[in-house]
Write a structure and sequence with these properties.
This protein is an all-beta fold and 161 residues long. Helices cover 0% and strands 51% of the residues. It contains no helices and 10 strands. The protein has a 5-stranded antiparallel β-sheet, with no helix packed on it. The radius of gyration is 15 Å and the shape is globular. The N terminus is likely disordered.
């Protein structure tokens, strides 16, 4: 695992950003280690470590991580890899993903009926002024059914442009 917490860019053109801190953990746990962000910051991505939480009943489960040393010119593409532990014909989870700049939403999307295979999802983001104030929130939400389903996330990257 490449720890990007202290990885400062060597040039100030466009530099991708990766998680470097846990801001809100909620009921999420890392599959290895003690912090969520260390399971999400690899380049290239690794699906062998991830963060996870059980979505029970009508509850939704969310976490938020800070993004470090990202630089660009106002736009970015947020990339996340997500899946569920068991796909059910009767119970579904959706996943809502947001790129925050401070308290401002710079891009968000909902991905519906998440499956068992890891999939990379992207969100177009714009209006970014302060790349040092970025964070990402991932929120698995009950879409239908009542079975307990585990939502998982293995990678987060902000490609600045």
């Amino acid at each position: 695992m490449l720890n990007r917490a202290l990885a400062k860019p060597t040039t100030w053109s466009t530099t991708p950003g990766y998680p470097n801190s846990d801001l809100t953990v909620g009921d999420y746990s890392p599959s290895t280690g003690s912090t969520l962000w260390e399971c999400l910051d690899e380049e290239p991505y690794s699906d062998t470590d991830y963060v996870y939480a059980d979505v029970i009943g009508d509850a939704d489960e969310k976490f938020k991580v800070g993004i470090g040393w990202c630089y660009g010119t106002g736009t970015a593409t947020l990339r996340v890899r997500i899946r569920v532990d068991v796909y059910s014909e009767t119970s579904y989870l959706d996943c809502y993903v947001v790129l925050w700049e401070g308290a401002s939403n710079r891009g968000s999307d909902t991905f519906y009926e998440i499956g068992e295979a890891w999939t990379e999802q992207t969100v177009s983001c714009s209006g970014i002024v302060d790349y040092n104030a970025l964070s990402v929130e991932v929120d698995f939400q009950r879409a239908s059914g009542s079975e307990t389903i585990e939502g998982r996330c293995s990678w987060i990257k902000v490609d600045s442009s």
